[in-house]
Design goal:
about 100 residues, mainly alpha, about 0% strand
Length: about 100
Amino acid sequence: MQDSIGKISSLLDNVSAKKNVVNDDGGDFSKVLEKSLSEVNGLQEDSQKAMSDMATGTVKDLHQAAIAIDKAELSMKMMLEIRNKALNAYKEISRTQI
């Protein structure tokens, strides 16, 4: 129990320390978004290659192919949720009266 509390507190320390760090890109949101989208695209391409390897029977490691497909699926779901949250925030801001 004490070990778990220690791990949690160290994670919280890491998170609070990272909040104070500025991105290497200068904190530009568009660059961060572009980088994230390119990572999701790369994972999707890896997933497509893994699926085609599975279909043709040239897959070397079935587990690695399944992991690549799951990573791509999860990253796409995460990206869609972020998009939905951003759209909801935009709609909420546009509804506020000045």
